[in-house]
Amino acid sequence: MAVERTLSIIKPDATEKNLTGKINAKFEEAGLRIVAQKRLHLTKAQAGKFYEVHKERGFYDELCEFMSRSPVVAQVLEGEGAVAKNREVMGATNPAEADEGTIRKLFADSIGENSVHGSDSAENAAIEIAYFFAGTEIVG
Ligand code: ADP
Ligand code: MG
Predict the structure, then answer these.
(1) Catalytic-residue membership of 41
(2) Distance 121 CA to ligand 2 centre (A)
(3) What is the average pLDDT score of the chain?
(4) Atom of ligand 1 nearest to the CA of 11
(5) Cβ partners under 8 Å of residue 17, min gap 6
(6) Closest ligand by atom to 12 CA
(7) How confident is residue 67, by pLDDT bands cut at 50, 70 and 90?
(8) Taking the CB of residue 85, how many other CB atoms lie within 10 A of it?
(9) Ligand 1 pocket check for 15: Cβ under 6 Å
(10) pTM above 0.90, yes or no
(11) Which residues lie near ion ligand 2 (Cβ < 5 Å)?
(12) SS (H, E, C) 22-75
């Protein structure tokens, strides 16, 4: 399998609970490398732009409010099949349906406040990585 990069975001519910290190340990244990990382406090408009694909969904406003409530940690994960591997380590969108041992099962509160974001395809990963990082900020 090819080495890939994917965008990960540690969401406000998790930074509020001081879980950055515990969550990143899960990625590293799974063989993913953190090759870029920044902590930032998104504005509601920035969160809205990032999640624009969901703008017709009923939860869009709630999602943008939540994502701009507290700091997030945006990061690039690198590894073999990183897009799918990250999604596996994250667990299902709804923590109630997530497998045992996944980040969302362990740490998330609800389908909305679910601790982590991960790109869903290599194509979207490239777009999402470019939203947060310049090429020179990614050091593999
Ligand atoms: P994922 O993050 O697993 O890729 P989606 O892309 O479907 O999930 O949704 C993006 C984000 O929107 C979710 O991670 C979650 O924070 C929020 N979300 C999804 N579905 C709901 C819902 N039914 N109610 C509230 N928030 C939701
Ligand atoms: Mg998604």
Answers:
(1) no
(2) 9
(3) 98
(4) 16
(5) 107
(6) 1
(7) very high
(8) 20
(9) no
(10) yes
(11) 120
(12) HHHHHHHHCCCEEEEEEEECCCHHHHHHHCHHHCCCCCHHHHHHHHCCCCEEEE
